[in-house]
Amino acid sequence: MNILIVNDDGYEAFGFKLLAHSLAGQGRVFACAPKVEQSATSQKITIAKKLKYEEVTSIPGTQRTIAVDGTPADCVRLGLKIYSDVEFDLIVSGINSGPNLSRDTLYSGTVAAATEGYLLGIPSIAISAADIKADFIIDETIKICEVIISKNIYKKYPLLNINFPSDKPLGRKITVLGSRTFHAEYKKINNENAFAVSYSINSNNEIKNSDDVAQKAGYTTITPLLYDKTDHKLVKSLEKNFEE
Fold first, then answer.
1. What are 136-176's pLDDT values in tens digits?
2. What is the pLDDT of residues 110-132, one digit of tens each?
3. For the chain, which has fewer Cβ within 10 Å, the N-terminal or C-terminal residue?
4. Domain count of the chain?
5. CA pair distance 101, 13, nearest whole angstrom
6. Domain contains 201
């Protein structure tokens, strides 16, 4: 099996090294990640400048490691180009430092990289952890990836979002995206045309069987995702409005 790993925290990130180590036993692992942190860049791609890259010392567990002066989505595209002689079976993005739950998935570079792989026809997984330095992370990543690969789950559910809780998981739950949001506070900086921004989590209107609720309760969450944002229920009614 050939696996491409990507992330949004940068190729030197601790979680990226954990991911490489965790997947090394599953096949040949190739790495392509941003040179610097690219959190919250979502699906952004580079179109107006050169996309520079360099081959760096391979992360233990990988065949080769490429560092890209671009976004997580760029890394997926460029990784597939640079490693064009490799037929990839799976793309895994992470392990992100901090969870990517609920509406976080709209902004997350980690989830965006997995989504980019999915859009390019390769099954993809995004993995995030509430505490990247928790001592269970490697074991849990190895176990969950072994199940996904050995049972061919990745072929049946080609875009998965996985989140580990802060403490050793009580188990795993298949979830839907929740409703938690980040509330932004903007504080004007004196004598500058600038604001300092701080965020807090708003978990009102919690949804049953959602990722945020399950993770808060101590479970690892696995959520199947789609790219299609069409509100299919409203297509017909919208047509009627224009017909009238």
1. 999 999 999 999 999 999 999 999 999 999 999 999 999 99
2. 999 999 999 999 999 999 999 99
3. C
4. 1
5. 20
6. no
Residue 98's CATH number: 3.40.1210.10
Specify if 148 maps to a domain.
yes
**Structural domain boundaries, residue 86:** 2-178+208-243
Q: Quick one: tokens of 34?
A: 């941003």
Three-state secondary structure readout of the chain:
CEEEEECCCCCCCHHHHHHHHHHHHHCEEEEEEECCCCCCCCCCCCCCCCCCEEEECCCCCCCCEEEECCCHHHHHHHHHHHCCCCCCCEEEEEEEECCCCHHHHHCCHHHHHHHHHHHCCCCEEEEEECCCCCCCHHHHHHHHHHHHHHCCHHHHCCEEEEEECCCCCCCEEECECCCCEEEEEEEECCCCCCEEEEEEEECCCCCCCEHHHHHHCCCEEEEECCCCCCCHHHHHHHHHHHHC
* 8 A C-beta contact, residue 240 and residue 189: no
**Is residue 33 one of the residues assigned to a domain?**
yes
Q: Amino acid letter at 39?
A: S
